[in-house]
Amino acid sequence: MANLLVTGGAGFIGANYVRHHVATHPGDHLVVLDALTYAGNLASIQDVLDGKLRHFVRGDICDSDLVHELLVKHDIDTLVHFAAESHVDRSILGPDAFVETNVVGTHSLLKAARKAWLGERRRASHRFHHVSTDEVFGSLSPTDPAFTETTPYAPNSPYSASKAGSDMLVRAYQHTYGLTTTLTNCSNNYGPYQFPEKLIPLFVIRCLEGGPLPIYGDGMNVRDWLFVEDHCRGIEAVLEHGKPGETYNIGGRCELPNIAVIDTIVKTVDAAFASDGRLGERFPNSPAARGASCADLKTHVTDRPGHDRRYAIDPRKIEAALGFEPAFRFEQALAQTVQWYLANEPWWRAIQNNDYRQWVQANYAARGG
Ligand code: NAD
Ligand code: TYD
After folding, report:
1. What are the structural domains, with CATH classification, of the chain?
2. Residue whose CA is closest, atom 44 of ligand 1?
Protein backbone atom coordinates (compact mmCIF):
# COMPACT_ATOMS: atom_id res chain seq x y z
CA MET A 1 0.00 0.00 0.00
CA ALA A 2 1.27 3.46 -0.90
CA ASN A 3 0.50 6.89 0.57
CA LEU A 4 0.28 9.44 -2.22
CA LEU A 5 0.15 13.22 -2.28
CA VAL A 6 -1.26 14.35 -5.64
CA THR A 7 -0.86 18.06 -6.37
CA GLY A 8 -3.24 19.62 -8.90
CA GLY A 9 -5.57 16.64 -8.56
CA ALA A 10 -8.64 18.78 -9.27
CA GLY A 11 -7.30 19.82 -12.69
CA PHE A 12 -7.68 17.99 -15.98
CA ILE A 13 -4.88 15.41 -15.93
CA GLY A 14 -4.61 15.29 -12.12
CA ALA A 15 -8.33 14.44 -11.80
CA ASN A 16 -8.03 11.74 -14.44
CA TYR A 17 -4.98 10.40 -12.61
CA VAL A 18 -6.78 10.35 -9.25
CA ARG A 19 -9.70 8.48 -10.82
CA HIS A 20 -7.34 6.07 -12.58
CA HIS A 21 -5.27 5.40 -9.46
CA VAL A 22 -8.35 4.79 -7.31
CA ALA A 23 -9.55 2.25 -9.88
CA THR A 24 -6.21 0.43 -10.17
CA HIS A 25 -5.04 0.74 -6.51
CA PRO A 26 -8.22 0.94 -4.42
CA GLY A 27 -6.31 0.27 -1.18
CA ASP A 28 -3.90 3.21 -1.52
CA HIS A 29 -4.16 6.28 0.66
CA LEU A 30 -4.53 9.45 -1.42
CA VAL A 31 -4.26 13.11 -0.42
CA VAL A 32 -5.13 15.64 -3.13
CA LEU A 33 -3.67 19.12 -2.70
CA ASP A 34 -5.12 21.76 -5.01
CA ALA A 35 -5.55 25.53 -4.78
CA LEU A 36 -8.73 25.38 -6.93
CA THR A 37 -7.67 28.13 -9.29
CA TYR A 38 -9.94 28.84 -12.27
CA ALA A 39 -8.75 25.47 -13.71
CA GLY A 40 -9.38 23.39 -10.60
CA ASN A 41 -12.74 21.74 -10.19
CA LEU A 42 -13.71 19.64 -7.23
CA ALA A 43 -16.65 18.26 -9.22
CA SER A 44 -14.12 16.29 -11.27
CA ILE A 45 -13.12 14.11 -8.30
CA GLN A 46 -15.78 14.59 -5.64
CA ASP A 47 -17.37 11.16 -6.14
CA VAL A 48 -14.10 9.31 -5.45
CA LEU A 49 -13.20 11.20 -2.24
CA ASP A 50 -14.33 9.69 1.07
CA GLY A 51 -12.47 11.75 3.70
CA LYS A 52 -10.92 8.54 5.11
CA LEU A 53 -8.71 6.91 2.53
CA ARG A 54 -8.98 9.78 0.04
CA HIS A 55 -8.77 13.34 1.30
CA PHE A 56 -8.94 16.71 -0.38
CA VAL A 57 -6.95 19.68 0.95
CA ARG A 58 -7.41 23.11 -0.56
CA GLY A 59 -4.01 24.77 -0.47
CA ASP A 60 -1.19 26.32 -2.45
CA ILE A 61 1.92 24.36 -3.43
CA CYS A 62 3.89 27.54 -2.67
CA ASP A 63 3.04 26.96 1.02
CA SER A 64 6.04 24.76 1.85
CA ASP A 65 5.06 24.42 5.54
CA LEU A 66 1.62 23.09 4.60
CA VAL A 67 3.15 20.59 2.17
CA HIS A 68 5.67 19.45 4.78
CA GLU A 69 2.89 19.03 7.34
CA LEU A 70 0.87 16.90 4.88
CA LEU A 71 3.88 14.74 4.01
CA VAL A 72 4.54 14.00 7.70
CA LYS A 73 0.94 13.75 8.92
CA HIS A 74 -0.12 11.30 6.20
CA ASP A 75 3.21 9.47 6.08
CA ILE A 76 3.41 10.17 2.34
CA ASP A 77 5.92 8.09 0.35
CA THR A 78 4.97 9.21 -3.18
CA LEU A 79 4.36 12.76 -4.38
CA VAL A 80 2.88 13.11 -7.88
CA HIS A 81 3.12 16.72 -8.99
CA PHE A 82 0.57 17.93 -11.56
CA ALA A 83 -0.24 21.40 -10.15
CA ALA A 84 0.65 24.13 -12.61
CA GLU A 85 -0.54 27.04 -14.61
CA SER A 86 -0.95 25.19 -17.89
CA HIS A 87 -2.37 27.34 -20.69
CA VAL A 88 0.04 28.93 -23.18
CA ASP A 89 -2.32 31.79 -24.16
CA ARG A 90 -2.70 32.81 -20.52
CA SER A 91 1.07 32.71 -20.07
CA ILE A 92 1.43 35.19 -22.94
CA LEU A 93 -1.11 37.55 -21.35
CA GLY A 94 0.24 37.20 -17.78
CA PRO A 95 3.48 35.30 -17.19
CA ASP A 96 3.87 36.10 -13.47
CA ALA A 97 1.48 33.40 -12.23
CA PHE A 98 3.42 30.86 -14.30
CA VAL A 99 6.73 31.69 -12.68
CA GLU A 100 5.09 31.74 -9.25
CA THR A 101 3.28 28.39 -9.46
CA ASN A 102 5.44 26.43 -11.86
CA VAL A 103 8.91 27.53 -10.71
CA VAL A 104 8.50 28.82 -7.13
CA GLY A 105 5.71 26.31 -6.38
CA THR A 106 7.73 23.33 -7.59
CA HIS A 107 10.70 24.53 -5.57
CA SER A 108 8.50 24.85 -2.50
CA LEU A 109 7.40 21.20 -2.94
CA LEU A 110 11.00 20.07 -3.40
CA LYS A 111 12.05 21.86 -0.21
CA ALA A 112 9.20 20.25 1.74
CA ALA A 113 10.00 16.79 0.31
CA ARG A 114 13.70 17.17 1.14
CA LYS A 115 12.89 18.18 4.71
CA ALA A 116 10.36 15.37 5.21
CA TRP A 117 12.24 12.58 3.46
CA LEU A 118 15.92 13.46 3.81
CA GLY A 119 15.80 15.37 7.11
CA GLU A 120 15.68 14.15 10.67
CA ARG A 121 13.13 11.35 10.00
CA ARG A 122 14.83 9.94 6.93
CA ARG A 123 12.60 7.89 4.62
CA ALA A 124 14.77 5.68 2.42
CA SER A 125 11.94 4.73 0.10
CA HIS A 126 10.27 7.79 -1.37
CA ARG A 127 9.45 9.20 -4.79
CA PHE A 128 8.94 12.71 -6.15
CA HIS A 129 7.36 12.41 -9.59
CA HIS A 130 7.22 15.58 -11.66
CA VAL A 131 4.72 15.82 -14.53
CA SER A 132 6.07 17.97 -17.34
CA THR A 133 5.51 18.74 -20.99
CA ASP A 134 7.16 18.22 -24.37
CA GLU A 135 6.92 22.00 -24.89
CA VAL A 136 10.19 22.44 -22.94
CA PHE A 137 12.03 21.13 -26.03
CA GLY A 138 10.83 23.99 -28.25
CA SER A 139 9.61 23.82 -31.82
CA LEU A 140 10.52 21.32 -34.58
CA SER A 141 10.70 21.85 -38.33
CA PRO A 142 8.71 19.36 -40.45
CA THR A 143 11.81 17.23 -41.04
CA ASP A 144 13.41 17.35 -37.57
CA PRO A 145 13.52 14.08 -35.62
CA ALA A 146 11.06 13.85 -32.72
CA PHE A 147 12.06 14.88 -29.17
CA THR A 148 14.04 12.32 -27.20
CA GLU A 149 14.96 12.51 -23.52
CA THR A 150 18.31 14.04 -24.50
CA THR A 151 16.99 16.76 -26.81
CA PRO A 152 18.29 20.10 -25.46
CA TYR A 153 15.71 22.32 -23.81
CA ALA A 154 14.63 25.35 -25.89
CA PRO A 155 11.37 26.64 -24.41
CA ASN A 156 9.64 29.45 -26.32
CA SER A 157 6.61 30.55 -24.30
CA PRO A 158 6.46 31.78 -20.70
CA TYR A 159 4.53 28.54 -19.96
CA SER A 160 7.18 26.23 -21.39
CA ALA A 161 10.02 28.32 -19.90
CA SER A 162 8.46 28.03 -16.45
CA LYS A 163 8.01 24.26 -16.88
CA ALA A 164 11.63 23.97 -18.05
CA GLY A 165 12.72 25.83 -14.90
CA SER A 166 10.75 23.40 -12.74
CA ASP A 167 12.27 20.39 -14.54
CA MET A 168 15.76 21.74 -13.86
CA LEU A 169 15.01 22.19 -10.16
CA VAL A 170 13.79 18.59 -9.91
CA ARG A 171 16.98 17.45 -11.61
CA ALA A 172 19.11 19.53 -9.24
CA TYR A 173 17.40 18.20 -6.10
CA GLN A 174 18.04 14.65 -7.30
CA HIS A 175 21.65 15.34 -8.21
CA THR A 176 22.59 17.53 -5.25
CA TYR A 177 20.55 16.19 -2.34
CA GLY A 178 19.80 12.64 -3.46
CA LEU A 179 16.03 13.11 -3.58
CA THR A 180 14.49 10.14 -5.43
CA THR A 181 12.82 11.68 -8.45
CA THR A 182 11.34 10.71 -11.80
CA LEU A 183 10.12 13.06 -14.49
CA THR A 184 7.85 12.63 -17.52
CA ASN A 185 7.58 14.98 -20.50
CA CYS A 186 4.27 14.36 -22.23
CA SER A 187 2.66 15.60 -25.44
CA ASN A 188 -0.79 17.25 -25.81
CA ASN A 189 -3.55 15.48 -23.89
CA TYR A 190 -7.29 15.38 -24.52
CA GLY A 191 -10.22 13.66 -22.83
CA PRO A 192 -12.83 14.10 -20.06
CA TYR A 193 -12.62 16.96 -17.52
CA GLN A 194 -10.40 19.21 -19.68
CA PHE A 195 -11.00 22.91 -19.04
CA PRO A 196 -12.67 24.39 -22.14
CA GLU A 197 -9.94 26.85 -23.02
CA LYS A 198 -7.76 24.19 -24.67
CA LEU A 199 -8.27 23.39 -28.34
CA ILE A 200 -10.35 20.20 -28.20
CA PRO A 201 -12.92 20.95 -25.46
CA LEU A 202 -13.23 24.59 -26.58
CA PHE A 203 -14.01 23.55 -30.14
CA VAL A 204 -16.42 20.76 -29.12
CA ILE A 205 -18.45 23.21 -27.03
CA ARG A 206 -18.31 25.90 -29.72
CA CYS A 207 -19.70 23.33 -32.22
CA LEU A 208 -22.56 22.60 -29.83
CA GLU A 209 -23.30 26.27 -29.20
CA GLY A 210 -22.72 27.52 -32.73
CA GLY A 211 -19.80 29.80 -31.75
CA PRO A 212 -16.80 30.52 -34.01
CA LEU A 213 -13.91 28.03 -34.08
CA PRO A 214 -10.87 30.34 -33.88
CA ILE A 215 -8.07 28.68 -35.86
CA TYR A 216 -4.75 30.36 -35.11
CA GLY A 217 -2.74 31.24 -38.24
CA ASP A 218 -2.87 28.69 -41.05
CA GLY A 219 -3.96 25.83 -38.77
CA MET A 220 -0.96 23.75 -39.83
CA ASN A 221 0.79 23.65 -36.44
CA VAL A 222 1.40 20.05 -35.48
CA ARG A 223 0.82 18.48 -32.05
CA ASP A 224 1.30 14.86 -30.95
CA TRP A 225 -2.04 13.92 -29.34
CA LEU A 226 -2.47 11.48 -26.45
CA PHE A 227 -5.68 10.40 -24.73
CA VAL A 228 -5.43 11.39 -21.06
CA GLU A 229 -6.06 7.84 -19.83
CA ASP A 230 -2.91 6.77 -21.68
CA HIS A 231 -0.94 9.56 -19.99
CA CYS A 232 -2.19 8.27 -16.62
CA ARG A 233 -1.12 4.73 -17.54
CA GLY A 234 2.30 6.06 -18.52
CA ILE A 235 2.76 7.88 -15.21
CA GLU A 236 1.64 4.78 -13.33
CA ALA A 237 4.20 2.69 -15.25
CA VAL A 238 6.96 5.15 -14.32
CA LEU A 239 5.90 5.22 -10.65
CA GLU A 240 5.92 1.43 -10.49
CA HIS A 241 8.89 0.52 -12.67
CA GLY A 242 10.70 3.75 -13.61
CA LYS A 243 14.33 4.14 -12.62
CA PRO A 244 15.03 6.84 -10.01
CA GLY A 245 16.68 9.90 -11.52
CA GLU A 246 15.40 9.12 -15.02
CA THR A 247 13.18 11.12 -17.34
CA TYR A 248 10.73 9.53 -19.79
CA ASN A 249 8.95 11.02 -22.79
CA ILE A 250 5.30 9.99 -23.16
CA GLY A 251 3.59 10.46 -26.51
CA GLY A 252 0.89 9.03 -28.69
CA ARG A 253 2.72 8.48 -32.01
CA CYS A 254 -0.15 10.65 -33.26
CA GLU A 255 1.18 13.78 -34.95
CA LEU A 256 -1.63 15.83 -36.49
CA PRO A 257 -1.91 19.38 -37.86
CA ASN A 258 -4.54 21.39 -35.97
CA ILE A 259 -6.76 21.51 -39.02
CA ALA A 260 -6.99 17.70 -39.06
CA VAL A 261 -7.93 17.67 -35.38
CA ILE A 262 -10.55 20.37 -35.99
CA ASP A 263 -12.01 18.49 -38.99
CA THR A 264 -12.28 15.35 -36.88
CA ILE A 265 -14.12 17.28 -34.14
CA VAL A 266 -16.50 18.74 -36.72
CA LYS A 267 -17.12 15.34 -38.32
CA THR A 268 -17.71 13.70 -34.93
CA VAL A 269 -20.18 16.35 -33.73
CA ASP A 270 -22.03 16.38 -37.09
CA ALA A 271 -22.36 12.57 -36.91
CA ALA A 272 -23.62 12.71 -33.30
CA PHE A 273 -26.41 15.11 -34.30
CA ALA A 274 -27.28 13.00 -37.35
CA SER A 275 -27.72 9.89 -35.21
CA ASP A 276 -29.49 11.48 -32.22
CA GLY A 277 -32.44 13.78 -32.97
CA ARG A 278 -32.59 15.03 -29.35
CA LEU A 279 -29.26 16.87 -29.73
CA GLY A 280 -30.88 19.39 -32.09
CA GLU A 281 -33.36 20.27 -29.34
CA ARG A 282 -30.63 20.54 -26.67
CA PHE A 283 -28.28 22.62 -28.82
CA PRO A 284 -30.48 24.53 -31.30
CA ASN A 285 -27.71 27.02 -32.19
CA SER A 286 -25.40 24.35 -33.58
CA PRO A 287 -25.27 24.32 -37.39
CA ALA A 288 -25.70 20.54 -37.08
CA ALA A 289 -29.14 21.15 -35.49
CA ARG A 290 -30.40 22.50 -38.84
CA GLY A 291 -28.69 19.85 -40.93
CA ALA A 292 -25.68 22.04 -41.83
CA SER A 293 -22.07 21.22 -40.85
CA CYS A 294 -20.15 22.66 -37.90
CA ALA A 295 -17.40 23.25 -40.47
CA ASP A 296 -19.30 26.50 -41.18
CA LEU A 297 -17.96 27.78 -37.83
CA LYS A 298 -14.27 27.59 -38.83
CA THR A 299 -12.70 31.05 -38.59
CA HIS A 300 -9.02 31.84 -39.21
CA VAL A 301 -7.77 34.39 -36.66
CA THR A 302 -4.47 36.13 -35.92
CA ASP A 303 -1.78 33.65 -34.93
CA ARG A 304 -0.63 33.15 -31.33
CA PRO A 305 2.59 35.16 -30.75
CA GLY A 306 5.63 32.87 -30.95
CA HIS A 307 3.38 29.90 -31.85
CA ASP A 308 5.47 26.69 -31.84
CA ARG A 309 5.15 24.99 -35.21
CA ARG A 310 5.55 21.34 -34.37
CA TYR A 311 5.91 19.05 -31.35
CA ALA A 312 6.59 15.32 -31.67
CA ILE A 313 7.60 12.74 -29.08
CA ASP A 314 9.96 9.85 -29.67
CA PRO A 315 8.50 7.35 -27.18
CA ARG A 316 11.03 4.55 -27.70
CA LYS A 317 12.62 4.82 -24.25
CA ILE A 318 9.43 4.26 -22.26
CA GLU A 319 8.33 1.58 -24.73
CA ALA A 320 11.60 -0.35 -24.41
CA ALA A 321 12.27 0.22 -20.71
CA LEU A 322 8.75 -0.10 -19.30
CA GLY A 323 6.78 -1.79 -22.08
CA PHE A 324 4.41 1.18 -22.19
CA GLU A 325 2.33 1.85 -25.31
CA PRO A 326 -0.83 3.93 -25.77
CA ALA A 327 -4.00 1.84 -25.74
CA PHE A 328 -6.32 4.37 -27.41
CA ARG A 329 -6.55 5.47 -31.04
CA PHE A 330 -7.24 9.10 -31.86
CA GLU A 331 -10.57 8.95 -33.74
CA GLN A 332 -12.15 6.53 -31.29
CA ALA A 333 -10.89 8.37 -28.19
CA LEU A 334 -11.96 11.73 -29.65
CA ALA A 335 -15.47 10.32 -30.23
CA GLN A 336 -15.44 9.12 -26.61
CA THR A 337 -14.40 12.64 -25.53
CA VAL A 338 -17.22 14.28 -27.51
CA GLN A 339 -19.67 11.84 -25.92
CA TRP A 340 -18.32 12.76 -22.47
CA TYR A 341 -18.93 16.49 -23.06
CA LEU A 342 -22.44 15.67 -24.35
CA ALA A 343 -23.19 13.55 -21.29
CA ASN A 344 -21.67 16.03 -18.80
CA GLU A 345 -23.17 19.36 -19.83
CA PRO A 346 -23.66 20.50 -16.18
CA TRP A 347 -19.88 20.14 -15.62
CA TRP A 348 -18.96 22.61 -18.36
CA ARG A 349 -22.00 24.88 -17.91
CA ALA A 350 -20.86 25.52 -14.33
CA ILE A 351 -17.47 26.61 -15.66
CA GLN A 352 -19.06 28.89 -18.25
CA ASN A 353 -21.00 30.62 -15.50
CA ASN A 354 -17.77 31.54 -13.71
CA ASP A 355 -14.93 33.64 -15.08
CA TYR A 356 -14.48 31.45 -18.15
CA ARG A 357 -16.83 33.46 -20.37
CA GLN A 358 -15.24 36.78 -19.40
CA TRP A 359 -11.76 35.48 -20.14
CA VAL A 360 -12.71 33.88 -23.43
CA GLN A 361 -14.42 37.06 -24.57
CA ALA A 362 -11.44 39.23 -23.63
CA ASN A 363 -8.97 36.88 -25.28
CA TYR A 364 -10.81 36.00 -28.44
CA ALA A 365 -12.25 39.45 -29.04
CA ALA A 366 -8.65 40.62 -29.34
CA ARG A 367 -8.04 37.91 -31.93
CA GLY A 368 -11.24 38.62 -33.82
CA GLY A 369 -12.49 35.06 -33.15
P1 NAD B 1 -4.91 22.19 -15.47
O2 NAD B 1 -4.66 23.64 -15.70
O3 NAD B 1 -6.15 21.56 -15.99
O4 NAD B 1 -4.90 21.89 -13.89
C5 NAD B 1 -3.95 22.46 -13.03
C6 NAD B 1 -4.41 22.20 -11.59
O7 NAD B 1 -3.41 22.76 -10.71
C8 NAD B 1 -5.74 22.90 -11.24
O9 NAD B 1 -6.57 22.02 -10.52
C10 NAD B 1 -5.32 24.08 -10.37
O11 NAD B 1 -6.30 24.45 -9.42
C12 NAD B 1 -4.06 23.52 -9.71
N13 NAD B 1 -3.15 24.58 -9.28
C14 NAD B 1 -2.70 25.63 -10.01
N15 NAD B 1 -1.88 26.41 -9.27
C16 NAD B 1 -1.79 25.81 -8.05
C17 NAD B 1 -1.08 26.11 -6.85
N18 NAD B 1 -0.29 27.19 -6.76
N19 NAD B 1 -1.20 25.27 -5.80
C20 NAD B 1 -2.00 24.17 -5.86
N21 NAD B 1 -2.71 23.85 -6.97
C22 NAD B 1 -2.60 24.65 -8.04
O23 NAD B 1 -3.61 21.46 -16.01
P24 NAD B 1 -3.47 20.03 -16.72
O25 NAD B 1 -3.73 20.18 -18.16
O26 NAD B 1 -4.22 19.04 -15.93
O27 NAD B 1 -1.91 19.79 -16.54
C28 NAD B 1 -1.40 19.10 -15.40
C29 NAD B 1 0.10 18.99 -15.51
O30 NAD B 1 0.45 18.29 -16.70
C31 NAD B 1 0.80 20.35 -15.62
O32 NAD B 1 1.98 20.30 -14.86
C33 NAD B 1 1.10 20.49 -17.11
O34 NAD B 1 2.25 21.27 -17.31
C35 NAD B 1 1.34 19.04 -17.50
N36 NAD B 1 1.06 18.70 -18.90
C37 NAD B 1 -0.15 19.03 -19.47
C38 NAD B 1 -0.42 18.64 -20.78
C39 NAD B 1 -1.76 18.94 -21.44
O40 NAD B 1 -1.93 18.65 -22.62
N41 NAD B 1 -2.72 19.49 -20.73
C42 NAD B 1 0.53 17.94 -21.52
C43 NAD B 1 1.75 17.61 -20.90
C44 NAD B 1 2.00 17.98 -19.58
P1 TYD C 1 -3.68 24.24 -26.87
O2 TYD C 1 -4.82 23.31 -26.62
O3 TYD C 1 -3.74 25.61 -26.29
O4 TYD C 1 -2.36 23.46 -26.45
P5 TYD C 1 -0.78 23.90 -26.65
O6 TYD C 1 -0.72 25.33 -27.02
O7 TYD C 1 -0.23 23.63 -25.30
O8 TYD C 1 -0.27 22.98 -27.70
O9 TYD C 1 -3.51 24.41 -28.45
C10 TYD C 1 -3.30 23.31 -29.30
C11 TYD C 1 -3.05 23.87 -30.68
O12 TYD C 1 -4.27 24.48 -31.15
C13 TYD C 1 -2.00 24.95 -30.72
O14 TYD C 1 -1.26 24.84 -31.93
C15 TYD C 1 -2.80 26.25 -30.72
C16 TYD C 1 -4.07 25.87 -31.46
N17 TYD C 1 -5.29 26.59 -31.03
C18 TYD C 1 -6.08 27.23 -31.98
O19 TYD C 1 -5.80 27.22 -33.21
N20 TYD C 1 -7.20 27.89 -31.55
C21 TYD C 1 -7.55 27.92 -30.24
O22 TYD C 1 -8.58 28.56 -29.90
C23 TYD C 1 -6.74 27.26 -29.29
C24 TYD C 1 -7.08 27.27 -27.82
C25 TYD C 1 -5.60 26.58 -29.72
Report:
1. 3-193+227-253+312-328+355-363 (3.40.50.720)
2. 133
